[in-house]
Amino acid sequence: MASAIFKEREKQVYLKGSRPFDLECEKESLAGAVSQRACVFCGSRVVLYPIADALHLVHGPVGCAVYTWDIRGALSSGPELHRLSFSTDLQEKDVIFGGEKKLYSALVELIDRHAPKAAFVYSTCIVGIIGDDLEAICRRVSEEKNIPVIPVQSEGFKGNKRAGYNAACRALFRLVGEGSTEGISPYSVNILGDFNLAGELWIIRDYFKRMGVQVVANITGDGRVDDIRRAHGAALNLVQCSGATMDLAVMMKEKYGTPVMRVSYFGIEDMAEALYGIARFFKEPSIMERTQQLVREELSALYPELQRYRKALSGKKAAIYVGGAFKAFSLVKAFRHLGMKVVMVGSQTGTQEDYRELEAITDDGTIIVDDSNPLELSAFLQEKEVDIFVGGVKERPIAYKLGVGFCDHNHERKEALEGFVGMLNFAKEVYSSVMSPVWRFVPKNSQGMLDGLSSHKEKILRCVS
Amino acid sequence: MKKQENKYVSTTNACKLCKPLGACLAFKGIEGAVPFLHGSQGCATYMRRYIISHFNEPMDIASSSLGEKHAVFGGAANLKKGLKNVCRKFSPSMIGVATTCLTETIGDDVPMILREYRSGIAQQGDPAPFLVNVSTPSYSGTHMEGFHEAVKAVVEQLAEGGEPLDFINLFPGFVSPADIRHLYEIVSDFSLECTILPDYSDTLDGPAMREYERIPQGGTPVSAIKEMGRALGSIEFGRNLKTMVTAGEFLKSRFGVVNRRIGTPIGLRETDAFFTALEEISGIPAPQKYMMERARLIDSFVDCHKYVFGKRAVVYGEEDLVTGLTSFLTEIGIQPVLCASGSKGGAFQESIKEVTEGILTDDPDVRDDADFYDIAIDVESMQPDIMVGHSKGYPLARKLGIPLIRVGFPIHDRIGGQRIVHIGYRGAQNLLDTIVNAIIEKKQDDSSVGYSYM
Ligand code: SF4
Ligand code: SF4
Asked: Which of A172, A357, A399, A448 fits as disulfide partner to A406, beta carbons 3.0 to 4.6 Å?
C-alpha cells in the first residue's frame, strides 16, 4: 500500500488506531496525482442542475457543458428544461475579443425560445481569464426579459467543488425572498441538498405529508424557481447530507432567521432521527404521534426483508469513497445494519470536522482518506480484501478490474437509496453485487486460469528490436 | 448539396466533445503512456468520467491541477511537479501532454516548459520518459481534431528516419478497440507487418486482472513509433482529413513515406478500397477468408434488401464515421436524409458527395457544426425511420419514436460500445444485421398481428 501513496499525500491518509488522529484535508489536489475531484463549476452545476424550470447556460467552451449534459438522475415532476445542455460554445475569436456579445445574444435567444422562469449563467475557467462581465450582461438581460438572470461565479480553477457549492448558494440566495409567503403553514420546511435522484425526494415528501408538515421549496431536486423565491417563509431549513447547500441555509438564517437542521435520509437510524428531529422541533404532539406511527409502519415492513439480506451479507467487507463526507457517516451505519464491516472510507472534499466524526464511528484498522486517486484506491481495495466498493462512475472500473463488487451511490444512480425503502434498495444493490457468481471466475479467485495472459503481445506483429 | 448555415448563437446538446478528450484517447493507445492535461483539475475529471462510461475501463488522466494563483502567474511549476509525480508513480515510457482552454489562454509555453523539465531531469540523471505535447484549445476544433493532432504530434516528436524496413504504418483514426483488433487480423492475414497508431485495443478493453496495473498493458510501443519514418508506406483512414496535416502527411513530407489516404472502411465499397490497397502493397490477393466474408455480405444484402429499401436515416457523429456509415447505408438502399456532425473540418460536404454519388438520387442534407437542436428542428419533416449514431441522440430518437442504431462514441446507455465492429466486411455484416433487425423489430412491435416469422 505504501508505494501507492504519494509522499506529499501521506498525511491525507490515516489508519485508525495507528496513531492519534490527524488528517490533512481541504488542500489543493496534487498535480499529477489523478485526483477524483472535479472543479468549482462542477460543484455549482450539480447543486443548481435540478431546478427544472430554469435555463442553465454554461458560458465557456463546449466541453464544460457537454460533460455535464443530463448526467445525473435528478427527476422532475413537471418541466424538464434542466435536462438540456446549453453552452455559448466559445470560439477562438470570442476568446480574443471577449465573449460578452455572444453571451448576451445566446441568453436572449434561449430565453425567447424556452421562456424559463429564471436563468443561471455559469462562468468557466476561461471566462475567468478573459474577464467577461457576467454581472452586467445578466443585469441587462434580466431587465429586458423580466426574469431573474443570475450569474454563477464558478470559474473552475478558483478552488474545488466546495467553492462551487458556495457559488451556487450565493446564486440561489438572490432568488430567495422575492416571492410571497402567503399560505405557508407554521409547520413547514424547505428541503435543501436533495437532488431527487431516482425520485428520492418524492419519498421524503411523502413522509412529511404523512407527518402533517408542509414543504415550501425543494432546493434543489425537482426544484421550481417560484418555490425558491418564497422559501424564506418556511419555518425550518433541512439541510441534507453533503452540505452542498449549507451555505444557503446559513445565509437564510442570518437574513431571515430561518433555523437550520442537518439531516440525512440514508439508512434506518438517520432517516428516523431526521423525522423525529423535525417533529421535536415543531413541538406539536400530533405531529410527533404521526411521526411515531410512520416510523413504526415503515420499519415493520422493512425489518423482515432486511434480515434476509443481513444473513447473506454479514461479515462482508465494504469500502466507501464519496464526494462529500457527510454521506459517508450514514453509509458506515447502514453497512453496520447489514452486519458488514467498513474497512476503508474516504471523500473528495471532507473537512477536519467530517473526518474526526468518521474516525469516531469507524473501527480500528479502517483506512480514512482524503482526495484519493485510483492508485491508492486500488491498493486499499486489495490490501483490505474488500467485497464491495461504494462510489461513483470513476470508482467503478477500479473495483471491477480487480474483481470487486460495486454499488453506485453517486449522482448517476438510478435506484432510490433514501428513506426506509431506500435502505432496502441499498441492501438489494449490495446483495446483488456481492452475491453474484461472477466473482468466482475473476483472476484473484481462479488461480492459474489467466496467468501468462498476453493477448496484447500476440497482436504486435512486428518484432521490435 | 444544400449547405446549412448555423442559425443559432448558442449550442444546445452539442454533437461534439472537446479537443483534449480526443488527444487523451490517442495517447491512451501508446504503450506505457500516461495522458496528461495541463489545466484545471475539472477538465481531466470530466473527461475521465465520460470515457469510463463508454469503455468501462479505468482511464487515468493526470492533471497539473492549476489553481487560481497558477492561472495568474502561469502553470509551469505545477506542470513540472505533475510530470515528476507521474514519473515517480507510474514509471511511464511516454507522457502525452495536452493543453486545455485555460492554459492556452493564459499562454503557457508548453514546449519550453518541457525542455526545461527535460534538462532538469538530465542533470539529476533520472531516466526520463518521452514527453510529447500537443496544443488542444477547445475553442478551435473538436475532439476529432484533438485526436488527429495528438497522433501527428506523437509521430512528429518521436519518429526517426533511416533505412526502410519491411512494414507499413496504419492510422485508423477513432475506431473501436474491436475494430483495431480486426485490423491487426486483416493486415497479418496479408502477411504484412504493421504499426497501428494509436492502438488502445487492450488499454481501453482490457482483461480482468489480479493486480491493478498502473498503466494497462498494450498500446503501440514507442520503439515502433520511432521507426515509423522507415515504413514502406502509410495507410490512413478518413476522407475528411483533406484539410489537415496528418501524421501520414507529415511522414511523407519529412521521410518520404508514401501516404495512402482512403475512406474509413465501413460498408462494402470503402472496405474494398482498403483491401485493394493491401493487395497492392503486399502483392498478394486478398485471402479467401475475406473474400468469403465479402460474398456472404453481398448474399445478405440481397436477403435484406426489401426490409431496408427506401427507409430514411439520420446519421450523426464524427465526420469520418458519418461518411463511412452514409456510404454503407447508401449501398443497401437506405436513404440518408440528414448527415450531421458537430465538427467543422471543411471537407464534409464533398466527402458525403463522394460516397453517395451515382447511387443516391436525392442528396442528403449535410450539416457540419451542428448540435442536436439543429438536427431536431427539421428532422420531423424529414420523416426518418432510423437514427444512426452515438447514444446522445437517444432523446431525439425517443421523441420521434424510431430506433436508434448505436455506433461510435460515446455509448453511455448500453453495454459493449468498445466491442462493436464497424469496419471491414465483418463490420458491415454486423451493422447490416443490427439495422435490419431494428427495423423489423419496430415493425413487429407496432403491428397488431404479432407475426412470429418475417
Ligand atoms: S475548459 Fe476546454 S478543455 Fe476543459 S472541459 Fe472545458 S472545453 Fe474541455
Ligand atoms: S474548464 Fe474549468 S470549469 Fe470547465 S471543466 Fe475544466 S476546470 Fe471545470
From this structure: A399
Residue B162 distance to chain A (closest CA, Å): 15
Amino acid at B202: D
DSSP A325: H
Q: Report residues whose beta carbon is within 6 angstroms of any ligand 2 atom.
A: A 39, 41, 60, 64, 124-125, 156; B 40, 42-43, 46, 101-102
Burial class of A167 by CB neighbour count within 10 A (0 to 12, 13 to 18, 19+): buried
Whether B102 and A125 lie within 8 Å, measured CB to CB: yes
Model ipTM over 0.85: yes
Tell me the CA end-to-end span of chain B in Å, nearest whole number: 37
Query: B315 forms bridges with which residues in the sheet?
Result: B339, B388
What tens digit of pLDDT does each residue of B198-237 get? 999 999 999 998 888 899 999 999 999 999 999 999 999 9
Q: Is the CB of B135 under 6 A from ligand 1?
A: no
**Which positions ≥6 away from B296 have C-beta within 8 Å?**
B425, B429
Q: What is the pLDDT of residues B264-308, one digit of tens each?
A: 999 999 999 999 999 999 999 999 999 999 999 999 999 999 999
The helix or strand, by DSSP H or E, that contains position B96, with its residue range, turns out to be strand B94-99
Q: Which of residues 14-43 of A touch B (CB under 8 A)?
A: 28-42
**Atom 8 (ligand 1) nearest CA:** A63
Report how far apart, in Å, the C-alpha atoms of B386 and of each of A68, A205, B114, B428 are.
27, 41, 49, 17
In this structure, are strands B233-237 and B259-262 parallel, antiparallel, or unpaired? parallel
- Provide the grid cell at A422: 431506500
